[in-house]
Amino acid sequence: MAIAEIPLRVWRTRGQSFVFQNHTLRYWTSGQGEPLLLIHGFPSASWDWHYLWRPLAQRFRLIACDMLGFGDSAKPLNHAYSLTEQADIQQALLDHLGVREPVHVMGHGYGVSVCQELLARHAEGRARVASCVFLNGGVFPEAHKPLLMHRLLLSPLGSWVARAFNRDTLFRSVLRLYGPHTGPSESEVDDHWSLIKAGQGNRVLHRLIDYIPERRVQRARWLKAMQQSGVPMRLINGSADPISGASMLARYRQMIAWPDTVALDMIGHYPHTEAPDLVLRHYLSFRQVLRCCATLAGPARIGAIKKAAAEQRPNKTFDKELQINVDEHKAEAVPFKP
What is the rounded radius of gyration, in angstroms, for the C-alpha atoms of the chain? Predict the structure, then answer.
């Protein structure tokens, strides 16, 4: 299935603005239905979701913003950027839009960590998360393999490296992250660079990169929420990704009870742009499972969701098969293993 892109020049015209603590941020919203919050990665922007935007907006109310320091949002030079503040921004945006119901979230890369922070807040009673899907991110810091560029930005040379970062540096760095047959075109790299350089964004890369050590600080809290919150989760993983691909998938399966995972062979760090049709298919199948299990509650619901997801069949009898799986769990309380 071919999914049409939204050109960056068109995407930019459709954005709106809101203010968070004196900083202007750009956001996009479209569609109706249950809210779906899309959270982008590093060092990109919400335009990363442009392939999935139209098909998802036919089913859900989509919400996405360029986080502080990214894309067309404000990029204060001497700001102490943090993942926790980015989660604050997501919640402020939901409040700005009047979203009061539990929100479904999907994050990529850096955005996966923001999703994990929202999950932790859900477990603490400070947010309401209905489900969470992760695309290639550092869910577990010990399985994350940063590139040389990441390590240089974290080093004492970070500010110098950030100032020297240019379009060619981006191209050389990002090309390694893609699958063998799904790399970006020259024009796509140009578009990504225009989002980074807007507002001299390359000059804050060494400050944004602090998300890597912040992940280690928050690891235990985030893991507890993932294991015990009861929020349905799925990992869709491009296995050819050198920083958070097959090794992250393996670690996820070790750490999460009854893990719901999808491995995309030959796909790299950006599955939503490298294989948007596959991501769309696996996301919609995840949401279909949630709908079929909606009448259950507590451990029975968690068990039914995980079992049904594991037993999905991509054929016309899927709905019937799935309903049988759900019915089997109605009289069975399946314990959730922390």
Answer: 19
